[in-house]
């Protein structure tokens, strides 16, 4: 199909300049033809269908046409309209200003660790939001991620995506290794689609390239080259760039584990570690500076040869099985009964969910400085008290982190933390004193329960629940 001309009209739209002419589609800026003001900038995507173009172009178009109208949120372009496949196929969608991660790689490297974690956390948050809608992108790469000026990451090009509630048109085509070779996950190489951890692998590839300027597995062009990632791992990022911190390499290499079960089980967990680098548990992955030995790769090769790959449960269910659980622990004045009841409720909430993460949070007032007192010392004491409280928990199979927040508004501080860290469950004490007064003045637990972005468990004790902090 030839390029549409600037000024041409099509089904009530005026075509403007061509923004991108790629191997799969052309993208144009468009306006309404009747002069009506659009609520947001718009772009039209028209698949290539010239002689010699593969059938995957039109199949990918049909996949995107199927999924884009049902996906929601600030990380996904809003759907406007679509054209008849039998006449002129197109999709009109929201157009975003910003730069792709590919442009950042081409123009801005090297990036600082802080820049890397900011970009990575934004990307992981966007991917997590997609997984909560029971969809997987499966073609994440720098060119398909737009960074907006406010730091929000937008995912584009859903032509290879998968949704649990809609037919998988690409699987019906019986193709294997559907995806972009440099970013495709090992399980995708053997034809497994629908595992959200495949997107986690792609996040690792993107972070590796952002950190080092190199692709971890190159750009293989053969099936044999693709299959190598079923057992191989890349040169450690710190071997290519020694100034990278160990926590960043830990995150990257954990995303890139050949076995999906050894990766982060949720993109929310990737975002959490990138947002809290001081809480990342450093293992041998983070410390490595030499490539894996030939002998170890041979062992993995034999293991991979007999491995059976199966997709995970529904993406949203996968997220539910490995939640980030937040417990709000009073900073002072809590009775033993209060602390014990919270501990018991947290233990039940973690249950048998291996891989669930526990975030222990306490809110303190603005520190009062004076002789023998400092802000650092008060934070240290509060953090120590949190860790002391957690020693009574059985955390086998769970990661725990400890966070001290300084705020005069306890409820808002807890709500901001929960929303910013993709918390799935909040556990906190229920105020049992002043029940008549609570009809008129909302307590901290009531405020949190009313406005929380997730489930809240209020734990009731026989003794009065003290305030989390004096406000």
UniProtKB/TrEMBL annotation:
Pfam families found in the cross-reference section: Pkinase, Usp
Listed CDD domains: STKc_PknB_like, USP-like
UniProtKB keywords: ATP-binding, Kinase, Nucleotide-binding, Transferase
Any one GO molecular-function label of the UniProt entry: protein serine/threonine kinase activity
Keyword Transferase: yes
Signal peptide (from-to): none
Domain spans labelled Protein kinase: 13-279
Record-annotated membrane-spanning stretches: none
InterPro entries assigned: Kinase-like_dom_sf, Prot_kinase_dom, UspA
Protein name: Protein kinase
């Amino acid at each position: 199909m030839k390029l549409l001309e600037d000024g041409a009209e099509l089904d009530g739209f005026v075509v403007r300049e061509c923004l991108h002419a790629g191997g799969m589609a052309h993208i144009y800026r468009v306006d309404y033809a009747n002069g009506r003001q659009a609520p947001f900038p718009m772009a039209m995507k028209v698949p290539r269908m010239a002689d010699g173009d593969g059938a995957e172009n039109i199949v990918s178009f049909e996949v995107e046409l199927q999924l884009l109208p049902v996906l929601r949120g600030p990380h996904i372009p809003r759907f406007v309209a679509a054209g008849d496949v039998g006449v002129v196929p197109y999709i009109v969608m929201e157009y975003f200003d910003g730069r792709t991660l590919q442009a950042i790689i081409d123009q801005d490297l090297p990036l600082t660790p802080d820049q890397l974690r900011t970009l990575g956390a934004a990307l992981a948050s966007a991917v997590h939001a997609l997984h909560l809608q029971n969809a997987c992108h499966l073609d994440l790469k720098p060119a398909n991620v737009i960074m907006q000026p406010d730091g929000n990451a937008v995912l584009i090009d859903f032509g290879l995506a998968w949704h649990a509630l809609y037919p998988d048109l690409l699987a019906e085509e019986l193709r294997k290794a559907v995806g972009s070779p440099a970013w495709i996950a090992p399980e995708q190489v053997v034809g497994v689609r629908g595992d959200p951890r495949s997107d986690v692998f792609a996040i690792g590839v993107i972070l590796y390239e952002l950190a080092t300027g190199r692709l971890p597995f190159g750009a293989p062009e053969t099936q044999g080259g693709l299959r190598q990632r079923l057992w191989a791992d890349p040169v450690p990022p710190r071997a290519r760039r020694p100034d990278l911190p160990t926590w960043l390499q830990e995150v990257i290499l954990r995303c890139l584990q050949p076995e999906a079960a050894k990766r982060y089980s949720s993109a929310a967990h990737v975002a959490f570690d990138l947002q809290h680098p001081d809480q990342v548990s450093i293992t041998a992955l983070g410390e490595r500076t030499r490539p894996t030995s030939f002998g170890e790769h041979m062992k993995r090769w034999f293991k991979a040869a007999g491995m059976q790959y199966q997709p995970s449960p529904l993406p949203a269910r996968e997220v539910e099985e490995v939640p980030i659980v937040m417990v709000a622990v009073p900073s002072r004045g809590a009775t033993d009964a209060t602390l014990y009841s919270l501990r018991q409720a947290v233990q039940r909430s973690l249950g048998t969910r291996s891989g669930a993460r526990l975030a222990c949070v306490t809110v303190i007032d603005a520190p009062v400085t004076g002789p023998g007192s400092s802000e650092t010392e008060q934070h240290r004491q509060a953090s120590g008290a949190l860790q002391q409280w957690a020693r009574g928990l059985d955390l086998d199979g769970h990661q725990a982190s400890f966070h001290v927040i300084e705020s005069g508004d306890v409820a808002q501080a807890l709500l901001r933390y929960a929303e910013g860290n993709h918390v799935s469950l909040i556990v906190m004490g229920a105020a049992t004193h002043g029940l008549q007064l609570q009809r008129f003045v909302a307590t901290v637990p009531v405020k949190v329960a009313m406005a929380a972005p997730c489930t809240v468990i209020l734990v009731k004790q026989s003794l009065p629940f003290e305030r989390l902090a004096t406000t």
